[in-house]
Amino acid sequence: MIRIDSVTKRYPDGTVAVDRLSLEIPDRSITVLVGPSGCGKTTTLRMINRMIEPSEGTILIDGVDSRQQPVNTLRRSMGYVIQNAGLFQHRTIVDNIATVPRLLGWSKDKARARARELMERVGLDASLARRYPYQLSGGQQQRVGVARALAADPPVLLMDEPFSAVDPVVRKGLQDELLRIQDELGKTIVFVTHDIDEAVKLGTMVAVLRTGGRLAQFAPPAELLSDPADAFVEDFLGADRGIRRLSFFSSAGLDLLTAPIVAIDASAEQIARAGTDVPYLLVTDVEGKPLGWSEPRDLTAGTIEPAELLPCGRPFVAGRDSLRAALDCAVLSPTGWAVAVDAEGRAAGVVSQQTIGEAIRGAHAEGSRSSETTKVSG
Ligand SMILES: Nc1ncnc2c1ncn2[C@@H]1O[C@H](COP(=O)(O)OP(=O)(O)OP(=O)(O)O)[C@@H](O)[C@H]1O
């Protein structure tokens, strides 16, 4: 839908912010522009909606040169979200969100109804509708910014570091919300960030730019992590690239053991049978939810005290979470074994660090034969 074709931006003082950039931005997915400060991300984004005009090259929207469209029509087909949301301080939340529909000539009632619907969609409580922006937290304001950009249902969303000013917990919530909205609405999103973790989490495709506005690599995140194009990209991805790549491998194939799991009301015979050739047993409550670890010889039927067990730590959800999540659980576990649970939080099995290590080696070997890796949650 959006094709950037050999675009250069030279500012009047001679600064080349973007240098012969070509990118095919796929429809209905999130394309992230990432790179160090000053590498031309914002300039590129603003050239898409013509807030900045390219010096050379063309930008095609649905195959048509963007310069052939009236600039107002073009901008209304592209929602725009910036850092700190950029809300109108003298307007209520509902009227901020209704801005573009009102400009398009919708009645006040219809525009406000649409705004209220969008508040719900971006996770804002209806009670905030009559407030003013200064009466909202940073994260809430950012949600209003997203709702405002979506108000006229534009096919394209341009987002310039929208979540950079909020704390990491709120930021994660906003990122998850964006992925959910994208799943539901299927917008074409171009997202600027300088945070590679955010790029890897959100991007279907990630464009890494280097200073001087040149493209270093354009690839899906899994490929970026497995095959960085050069030393610059490798450096930008950071030293823990290998660990991060594990987020793309599912825990579904892990060999989970169920034998070393006993319920708190287990009989002496059940404990003896479970503990024959494992160093630790996982004790669960009567519903099967993990309570903690114990060496088999320390367990006596009928007298198991949850407070005396070794903590079992955070479990991973079997099949849903990634190998990275499974490894993290094992590394943090006092026994070196990770606990897998089902969607209801009941123990689904246990797995040792060693088995996870073997699965990782297998996944890497498989991954190097096929680049068909998709994102896994957790
Ligand atoms: N109006 C301008 N006049 C001259 N140079 C400019 C202008 N706007 C931006 N630049 C320069 O162009 C280059 C790219 O700027 P741009 O804002 O696109 O980068 P960025 O990657 O978005 O940076 P950041 O992550 O710091 O926001 C920088 O060197 C910047 O100083």
TrEMBL record:
* UniProtKB keywords: ATP-binding, Nucleotide-binding, Transport
Q: Does the keyword Protein biosynthesis apply?
A: no
Record-linked InterPro entries: AAA+_ATPase, ABC_transporter-like_ATP-bd, ABC_transporter-like_CS, P-loop_NTPase
ABC transporter domain span: 2-237
Q: What class of enzyme is it?
A: translocase
The protein's Enzyme Commission number? 7.6.2.9
Which Gene Ontology terms cover its molecular function?
ABC-type quaternary ammonium compound transporting activity; ATP binding; ATP hydrolysis activity
Enumerate the PROSITE patterns for this protein: ABC_TRANSPORTER_1, ABC_TRANSPORTER_2
- Name the family the entry cites: Belongs to the ABC transporter superfamily.
How is this protein named in the record?
A: ABC-type quaternary amine transporter
Question: Which lineage is the organism of this entry classified under, starting from the top rank?
Answer: Bacteria, Bacillati, Actinomycetota, Actinomycetes, Kitasatosporales
